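Question (not urgent): is this output format expected?
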Amino acid sequence: MSNEAEKPVSLIDVGQKLVGHSKSAEFTANRGLVVELFPFIFEASDRMSARAICRFLMEEQGIRLSQVTIAKALNDPKKSWRSFFENIEPSAIVLAKHSKSASFKYLFLSKADYENRTSLDKDGTITGMLARGVRAMMRPEWVAADKVIREKWFSIGLATRLKAKPHLEDHLMALEDKF
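Got this back:
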């Protein structure tokens, strides 16, 4: 009688069982999530460890993001900032092309300064409403890009955006050279 422990293990069988289990188990791969949350993780890391951030996300928000994934993102901030910026880059380019200076300096203004420069409220109620309507009809891509930038970029604190600047600067300069 042969011993079951001595039976050769087929790695193919092991691999197929692993894949089968992965399809029936709860989905836990949230790698893209660390990119979306990176600016906030980066800012929180000034006062919290990767382990504490991981614990907060799980216990308070129900988000599973491993300590290793968080630490990996924080250990290569240039790569992480660029990955985050890739999501908003098309919108940032649209706004830069429509600005007089065709640069990305607006990304590092305070939210209030950005809103003052892009708002048409200073034109008065009626004039501002007309101007916003004309802008929406004439430049719908600008309006859509502005919405993305307001939601995804200006939701990040100014101090954190300024800390991102050195990690993004050479990439932004290369983009400016293209237009």
